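Form 7-S
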Amino acid sequence: MHDEDFCCAVCLDFFIEPCIIKCGHSFCHLCIESHLNITEKCPLCRAFPGNPIKNRQLESLTMSYISFRNLSTSYYERMKSNRKKNVQDEELKSEIRSQVRQQVGIGLEHIGDLEGDTVTIRLKSSSSK
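Output:
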């Protein structure tokens, strides 16, 4: 067995609350939910996934594998907490992008991904002309 057997193809880390979708691929619950909010296709095979179903057997196997590798349960819990925070951060960034696009009325594709901590956009008010 290898680490990648117990890793999500979206986040590339150990499965956290793994789910299986209709095509048979498994992902972390938060990863697949976040992905499906953007596109309703499997990240690996592009098939329509249907509703994710918790895969308790894979979760148990993953935890056993982590334990076998001498990774503590607290590490698993920290990973889980960090993953939730990262997903929430990405969702917040996405919401901010959407709101800015609506407010400004233009696409921001030329800015690219908002990887930095701060994005400043200065707008001229119509009354300053």
